[in-house]
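Anyone? Bumping this.
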Amino acid sequence: MNYSDSKYYREISVRSNTENLLKIRNFVRDGALALGFTEEVVGNITLAVDEASTNIIKHAYKYSPEGEIIIQTDFADKKYIIKIIDAGNHFDPTSVPVPDLKEYHKQKKVGGLGMFLMKKLMDEVVYDNPDERMNQVTLVKYLT
Amino acid sequence: MADFNINVRGVGSVDVIDLHGYLDAHTAPDLENAFNRLINDGKYKVVVNFDHLKYISSAGLGVFMAYVETMRDNKGDIKFSNMKENVYNIFDLLGFPMLYEFFEKEHEAVNKFTD
């Protein structure tokens, strides 16, 4: 899907370094605020994008700072659509079970909570592969 | 690191960690280092004061999950205070209130250790 004709379309590309999480959050935050989301919802969107990007840095690129993360955002039909794209290792979202939180804490298992948060905070979370090389997660928030 | 700062201070037999700024996957290792130093010094009673924390992601919450058992195994704990609503909501989503104590004021958390 190409949104580049939309007046709302924005894009940013950063290296897969955790240092860039702040830059990613600011990019998404500015976009969401301009669209009129409340401060609380803006915070939720920003966190969801941080979690998606952190997962890419950790799992797709295994902390190598040389990878690329592309964030494309658009707004259509009262939906803020955020695509987060990488060219790292493929990831099967169905391999991650929904955590039983009580068990999770007991097992002292750290990590894996990012996807859980994304699903809680956003209206839609879709994983796909636009081509063989790329991974894409699409996060959608409805402006109500 | 300009976006995140940690200050550790003793309040009686309790150590209070003040968090400032943004706690994410980039800054979480700083907090891990603070917990490692406390453990090395045999200090297990910890209150984390969130008054100046503006943001937290699951990478930050994961640090508490990684260290709480060590603290509890040594007759200590990690207790939380002064958390703003937006930050508390994330802890709540991830089930922390079932297993951790939250206090409005720092002295209430400190007193819980000494009572």
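Late reply, but here is one note on the structure posted above: Chain A touches chain B at residues 18-19, 21-22, 25, 40, 43, 47, 50-51, 54, 57-58, 101-102, 104-105, 108-111, 113-114, 116-117, 120-121 (CB under 8 Å).
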